[in-house]
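To fix ideas, we now present one chain and its tokenised fold:
***
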Amino acid sequence: AEFLFFEGYELRTPRVDTVELAQVLYPQFEKYNLGILCQELGIELEHAHTALSDAQATAELLLYMRQKLFELPKGLLESLLNLAD
């Protein structure tokens, strides 16, 4: 996204940093790279460091964490949203 911005294009799509989200949802983890997150959460990462496999695993990871967010108490979720602003 940063590259496109410097080339004169501005993306107006929301972005989520899966590492930051994982750090909030799973503070007990020692590391937050894609391989570790997938291993800890039972998400398949068949061919690490290949674009398609990493993208698919990241998408699954995001959906997994999204579900975890929906399971949080409403007040806590609202507090997290306020921190994001």
Summary: The CA atoms of residues 37 and 77 lie 21 Å apart. Helices lie at 2-6, 18-25, 34-41, 51-70, 74-84.
